[in-house]
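FIELD: query
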Amino acid sequence: MKTIKNLLLLIVALFAITLFSCRKTHGNSTTNSISSLPKYEKRWNISDSLSHRPAVAPSANKGTFLHAANKQAHRPEQDSLPNYSAIEFLINSYVIFFQDGSVQVGQYTATSDTTLVLDSVGTIYITSISSATFSFVLVPNDGAAAITITATAANPIGNFTSASDAAFISNTWKFDSIVDPEFPGEDLTEGDVSYAVFSEYGTYLIRDTYDDSTEDYETNTWQWSNSSHNQLCYGEWDGQNITSCDGLGSVKVVSFAAPYTKLVLQETDTTDAIIYYLSKQ
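FIELD: result
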């Protein structure tokens, strides 16, 4: 009887240990890894397609706190239709790069493993995809002829192998508050929310959403400014692409430690530092 009782106690103890282990593992699984992202979530260079880009007038700036003078609509209004040069899929967002240097930004939804719906653009039907190549058919929203595109994967701007790397570039970050000595007391506008995404290809995308269901975008480029990957720099918000941390703009990433749920960006190229507080979504 004692042997049976001890055996039952052992089984109960093993079950409790297993349950605790499972809960602990689940609780620590909130950080995405780069390798777990969808295959299409990359930047793809395009060289063999003709683009189709109807003009869309830019929306009015809403005047929120974040670089309000440089807002972008989904796309600039133009008569000319330059060819695509690349397309990048970030977390729920896309950026189309054109050969004239302009970009088109918006949100997309994956309705299946082979179908991506891009707002203000059209629907992408994936015909084949690998780590190096991406072939798809783009059916524009306005009924224009479908476009067949073959693209090749771009090279990331560095090696992103650490847990902090993965957390930084594989998550969406929400702006919670700002401290700007030039505008004391300024805070986020109620009902308006801003998000940031950083990609391993050097894309820095900000999406501003408003309580009237409209949105604006800003794009920039970024790179690490030290080997520890706890500081970065990015270009000014004037369309410039940064190629080195050369004074165009700079920022420090501070208070970014496991479990990597909070991000603090402190601009250091101003007389009085501007600090942005973000949280992982």
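FIELD: remark
Residues 1-31, 63-70, 75-80 have pLDDT under 50 and may be disordered.
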